[in-house]
Amino acid sequence: MATDSHTSRCLHLVADVGGTNARFAFAESSDPVPAAIATYAVTDFPSFQDVLVQLQRDWVELADPSARLTKVCLAVAAIPEQEEISFTNNPWRFTRSGVAEQIGCSDVRIVNDFAAVARSLTALGPEHLEVIGGGTVVAGAPKVAIGPGTGTGVATLAFDSRGDAIVLPGEGGHVDFAPITHVEEEILSRLRAQYGRVSIERLLCGAGIMNIYRCLADIRGVEAIQLDPEDVGNSARAGGDALSGEAMNTFFSVLGAAAGNFALTLGARGGVYIAGGIAPRYIDLLRKSDFRARFHAKGRFADFNGQIATSVVTHPDPGLLGAALLCAEEGGSEY
């Protein structure tokens, strides 16, 4: 597309590609706030290449004669340093060079999806956060984002001496699950028989809710009647099914313990932020659960964690917002 560089609209394409959905948006180079293009279900497309074909049909702004695509930032639920991006909970595969060729932009950046969520934290206002429990946010201190959804994402946001944001990505969702209660020990025993090694992601995701629910049914000697995580959550909210209620409380208790461990490890006095697709749907159940008690329950360092704020991220697309902020940065590192 030939345009005058002095009058063209320089557009950035950003995406948040997880195990269930691929969300796309664009931002003007002068304004990193993303505008939605479309959300596609992973199961509706055989490949990522097919999604990009559909995206180019749906992205009407790119048809503007003055528009020019100058940067792409894809936030992926995968290890971004791989030559071929291979998702943990998604069958799609693609390469940076393949995307660049297909979409016609050489500046393609690939980052971890929770690196993007962590980067968004500086741009979230009070209206995008639901505070859970006490604690205070210390300006300039590290912030941790953890998110149960299709999988479990974890990343940290730190700051340099000038106050500029530095994203510290990782694969914290795959650390070992450490049971605290006798019931959790029994859950671990059953999951170990099924999976061998048990990470926190085996409990802290949609499939993890079902793992907890079925294990509890076996422990209690009752029938597991719920068929999916939404059924368990809705039944727990309605209060008619004690097993569903116990499953959701266990889910949020394990989440609180894991979040507290990351807070200790990273000194997250800037706060711990619960993102992902599950917690925002069930804030009422989270508040009634042992989440905050388990976040505190760190023995001699209970007071340390008690001073750290915890919040649920209610922004609809923090991954896209963070990807847009990363895309706007000049010469940034891969996350």
Protein architecture, described:
It is a single chain. With 335 residues, the protein is α/β, with parallel strands linked by helices. It has two domains: 9-112 and 318-328, ATPase, nucleotide binding domain (Nucleotidyltransferase, domain 5, 2-Layer Sandwich); 125-314, Hexokinase, domain 1 (3-Layer(aba) Sandwich), CATH 3.40.367.20. The protein has eleven helices and 13 strands. The protein has helices at 48-58, 96-103, 113-120, 182-195, 206-220, 229-238, 242-266, 283-288, 291-296, 302-306, 318-328; strands spanning 9-17, 21-28, 31-41, 67-76, 84-86, 93-95, 108-112, 129-132, 143-148, 152-159, 165-169, 272-274, 310-313. The strands form three sheets. The protein has a six-stranded mixed beta sheet with strand order 8-13-12-9-10-11, sandwiched between helices. Strands 3-2-1-4-7 form a five-stranded mixed beta sheet, with helices on both faces. Helix 6 packs across helix 7. The longest helix is centred in the C-terminal third of the chain and has 25 residues, at 242-266. The radius of gyration is 21 Å and the shape is globular.
